[in-house]
Amino acid sequence: xxxxxxxxxxxxxxxxxxxxxxxxxxxxxxxxxxxxxxxxxxxxxxxxxxxxxxxxxxxxxxxxxxxxxxxxxxxxxxxxxxxxxxxxxxxxxxxxxxxxxxxxxxxxxxxxxxxxxxxxxxxxxxxxxxxxxxxxxxxxxxxxxxxxxxxxxxxxxxxxxxxxxxxxxxxxxxxxxxxxxxxxxxxxxxxxxxxxxxxxxxxxxxxxxxxxxxxxxxxxxxxxxxxxxxxxxxxxxxxxxxxxxxxxxxxxxxxxxxxxxxxxxxxxxxx
Length: 271
Prior knowledge:
single chain, Spore Coat Polysaccharide Biosynthesis Protein SpsA, Chain A, nine-stranded mixed sheet, globular, 2 domains
């Protein structure tokens, strides 16, 4: 019998029937198990919702998995916040329905945070899997980590959502008006307020598409850029950065965006 730890796993799901089993299997394959698993279905297509329910019952009927259905499409930030609100564990961990975790992810991350109670959140490195199949799992006997500074989180989101573990009772939540870049905005708000965040340098999550230029939210580069600029504007208006920093970040973001468009065009020509 595996040990259960005080972590609630929250998995937002939108038309995820083809990938959800891989995600859940990676949670149930952990060396220690979470106290709760919430699947938040954000799909208003009743047929697909019933199909998702059948997948959960058929494969995980004996597991402690809770499926919650939004009445209408609310977006991933709302779904994550809903799971966060319902969570009873000391920590919440987020996994996207098309990603997966290394088997030691919860054990290593939870143990690290329990030993360092002053840390509000942790993230870790990811591995991008190109062939859609995880061949092997590297076993970790130890971890290395580095504290995330304010400048680190301003320049880019160094904590993709599937890497996050956060103290449940903090007074921060995802901005539900942001359909994109909501995780980066949350992290900027937390870290710019002086809270301690640490990045674990082990690869404890698997992502099955490039961060930009693939199917899914990350493929909509224009919307992501628009919302990144909006996120910087929000923290500027909240007086968390000054006008010089704000101006630099806007220019820096636009330069990155143009560079990505150029690279995407070059790659498309080579295919």
